Amino acid sequence: MWKLKNAEGGSSWLQTLNNHVGRQVWEFDLKAGTSEDHLDVEKARADFNDKRFIQHHSADFLMRLQFARENPLSPLPPQVKIESANDITEEAIQTTLMRAVRFYATIQAHDGHWPGDYGGPMFLMPGLVIVLYVTGALNAVLSEMHKKEICRYLYNHQNEDGGWGLHIEGHSTMFGTVLNYVTLRLLGQAPDGGQGTMEKGRAWILDHGGATAIPSWGKMWLSVLGVFDWIGNNPLPPEIWLLPYFFPIHPGRMWCHCRMVYLPMSYLYGRRFEDLYYPHPLIQDILWGTLHKVVEPALMHWPGSMLRERALQSVMKHVHYEDENTHYICIGPVNKVLNMLCCWVEDSNSEAFKRHLPRILDYLWVAEDGMKMQGYNGSQLWDTAFATQALISTDLLDDCGPMLKKAHMYIERSQVIEDCPGDLNFWYRHISKGAWPFSTRDHGWPISDCSSEGLKAALALSQLPQDIVGKPIPSQRFFDSVSFMLSMQNNDGGFATYELTRSYPWLEIINPAETFGDIVIDYSYVECTSAVIQALVAFKKLYPEHQCKEIEACISKATRYIENIQRHDGSWYGSWGVCFTYGTWFGVLGLVATGKTYQNCSNIRNACEFLLSKQLPSGGWGESYLSCQDKVNFFVVSFFILSFYF
What is the pTM of this model? Predict the structure, then answer.
């Protein structure tokens, strides 16, 4: 039976800054679980499979089953039943909160964070399996039980038409279908396996033009596997990294996620290791054609080959810098497996490659729908910071105290307390001292809104009794966090994610990934900007003399940014959640933190009108992911369809 292990190492090749706090890894244990547990898991798997075309998301049954035994639920007061508005009393609310708090205590890990599934994308696991297959490490890293659960996941999330989407709710695409079909074959599935599902997948590919119609990222993976010629790829010459930084197209100016993916891609392309949503425009056709016909032939032969070798060496220095500063977790799953492949290509017996292997497990998660590769190594700090603020808001300190003490420890041990080494400009890195990451300290990439939520939680904890929640984080570390936030404000007054916006939106024109839009540079976002405002306002109340002028100026500019980007219908577009509801929540919270109210702020009045116009007959709100993709409100009708199904 699968067992979740938290804050554990397990390999001499692993490195850590805080004893692996926040690390979550699944391990198969033949002796784990009772016969009743095994039956319950199989039932959950069968139930998911039966409803897979309607309910795409798992419920983390395996984790909840394990935690139910490890963290038994305290006795609960009777559930409150509401028959009329008169039943909504303060006592009823307190009882409901107490029930929720006691349940929440059962799903907290011993190191203080709340584990959970961060899966969904369907293009991540194929990259991992292809790299492990090419490097000969497939069987060493993935046991037969790993392979079984991966296949379960891929079969569960195959669409009814036989294809696979970009993510588990998406319509079938050539990108998703080819990569997942190839992955199943590499994992040992026969051409007629899966009770006919493999044949359906192959038929979808052939009916839609064949595998060569796959977008550029897919072509790159097929080239790595050796089944597609590199000449069919959009050129990614590593020499671009040798350009002077003042060039707007310098990769160092890209959004870090984009930059860190194209960094190892350019190495693989340079070594020749042998249209979904956003079709590329004419200018890209001209650019790629010129690079293919003129530039690449020159760089592949002497004396141009000398420049190529210098560029490849430079790229690998940056690959190793990223690996070492994230303890081989890397910023995300795509560059994780690409960096690992680059290290193997450079030296198949290298220490770097060996350090990469055990960190693969940091990205794998198991639920009743199977094993998936997550979009990050988790969302540990993000979830813990929000959970902490929610628990404090209940005023149920007697019940919340033990949870808050563990969460406080997690937040304290996850803060980044120093910048990355060396010349940050050379490595294209922003300062990180005082920041908080999205997941774990060992990952370490600093993010504006994660830092804000971490600071808000830490400040709130510092005002509670030490004998209940533990010793507060030293003030100097709060000051460092504020300095980081102030350094992150863009010229437009807003805040991006990991770094300042470094180039121009027109750079999206040469985005070589047909699959993803608006990824080339880091933009200002309402969510990040609002979170920073809230954190600085909370900090200012406790430390009114510290950098007061700088903080006031920052808040004022950020507030104007939020006001100026509100849409005509009263909403804000949310980029990091679904979508207009999420963005509007942050927009309103940011303005409220500065003293704005319904009475004195037209932005808030317009936002309230927008939200009220989208309320469902049930009294709640819902929204489809299509809002994010099409940037048009898609408020959910599917809830009504689901109600008929059940």
Answer: 0.92
